Amino acid sequence: MNKLQLSSLYQLSIMRFRLTLREPEAIFWVFIFPILLAVGLGIAFRNRPADVLQVAATTPQLTRALAADNGLAASTMDESAGSRALANGSILLLAIQQPGGVAYQYDDTNPDARSARLLADRVLQTAAGRRNPIPAVDRLVHQPGSRYIDFVVPGLLGMNLMGSAIWGIGFSIVEARQKKLLKRLVASPMRRWQFLAAYLISRLTMLVLEVVAFLGFARFIFAVPIHGSLWQLAALCVLASLSFSALGLLVSSRARTMEAASGLMNLVMLPMWILSGVFFSATRFPAVIQPIVRALPLTAAIDALRGNMLQGIGLQHMLAPIAVLLAWLAVPFAVSVRIFRWR
Asked: What is the pLDDT of residues 252-280, one digit of tens each?
């Protein structure tokens, strides 16, 4: 055997990698779950023609004018019948003929109803002879890069990197502590940092498989673009995974039971699931909490991944999110080495 094969770090890393592959639950959550989630979201938010909005009018003349627009399906109802149809959701808007013009009856808290109001008014005003002072044309965009699935795939990738790292490392350490396996490792000729670093190295091995599988699926099935450098994307994935792995080490450094570890991991990850912009932009949150949102490692990871994949931004222009990820790698790992409990 050479020196590498005899080293504690090498043996521990190989052991961690083999144990991970033997866990069916880990394989499902690392490889299958993010793909299933991408499929569901890709189907739900696929490009499709605009919905036809159901409206009604109190006179046949108004009905014919509204039906001239392809985005509206119009029928004729009296005012009482139209009010009942609005109440039960059969229509979104009722156009009521009045001596001085038209009254629109609709629920302004419903986005589809507001859209129906704008369409109906445009159609009726045009039918009455209104002319737009400024000519306008529509230039519709449907190419890859502007769709919701393109936006959400980097978020799902970041979420998967976080979950697989924190859960995979945290649960395995606590399980070994519960089974008294860590006590045996104390007597072996290794250092504490080697034991913890082995978990990080094993994560890097799994990282290649999970990232290639997920991004390959997204690229092949949904044509999700990757405008940035592939090696820079790989570097971002490695950095993000190491940062989340360090968090997993910290969470599991003292926990003695699986229940305690599960509670701590959910406490760490839940705020990031909500605040970090996995499924929508993190800028939607109030400005007062934006410093907190930007300091989260998942926010930094997702921002960097979206910058690379969707905008082609280089690492030299991502110094802020990279600095956040480096901080979440260095500090939790250093604290873990110091407070790690073998029993």
From this structure: 888 888 788 888 888 888 888 888 888 88
CA distances from 331 to 104, 247, 325, 327, 335 (A): 60, 9, 10, 6, 6
Q: What is the pLDDT of residue 44?
A: 52
Identity (one letter) of the amino acid at 167?
A: W
- How far apart (Å, rounded) are the C-alpha atoms in residues 74 and 127? 15
Strand partners, 103: 96
pLDDT on residue 69: 84
Tens of pLDDT, residues 141-159:
555 566 778 888 999 899 8
Q: For residues 236 and 301, what is the distance between their CA atoms, to the nearest angstrom?
A: 7
Q: Which residue has the tokens 């044309």?
A: 137
- The full length of the chain comes to 343
pLDDT tens readout for residues 228-261? 899 999 999 999 988 998 898 888 888 888 788 8
| Domain residue ranges of the chain, discontinuous segments joined by + | 3-45+144-339, 53-127
Which residue reads 């059969």 in tokens? 90
Per the CB < 8 A criterion, the answer to whether 245 and 332 are in contact is no
Strand order in the sheet with 93-98: 72-76, 53-57, 93-98, 101-106
pLDDT given at position 330:
93
Note whether 76 and 97 are within 8 A (CB): no
The span from the CA of 133 to the CA of 220, in Å, is 46
User: Taking a C-beta distance cutoff of 8 angstroms, is the pair 108, 85 a contact?
Assistant: no
* CATH class entry, domain 53-127: alpha beta
Q: How would you class 45 by CB atoms within 10 Å of its CB: exposed for 0-12, middle for 13-18, buried for 19 or more?
A: middle
> Three-class SS of residue 191?
coil
Separation CA 177–CA 83 (nearest Å)? 66
Q: Which parts of 72-183 are beta strand (E)? A: 72-76, 93-98, 101-106
Look up residue 38 and give its two tokens: 């991408």
Strands 53-57, 72-76: pairing kind: parallel
- How far is it, in rounded angstroms, from Cα 166 to Cα 152? 21
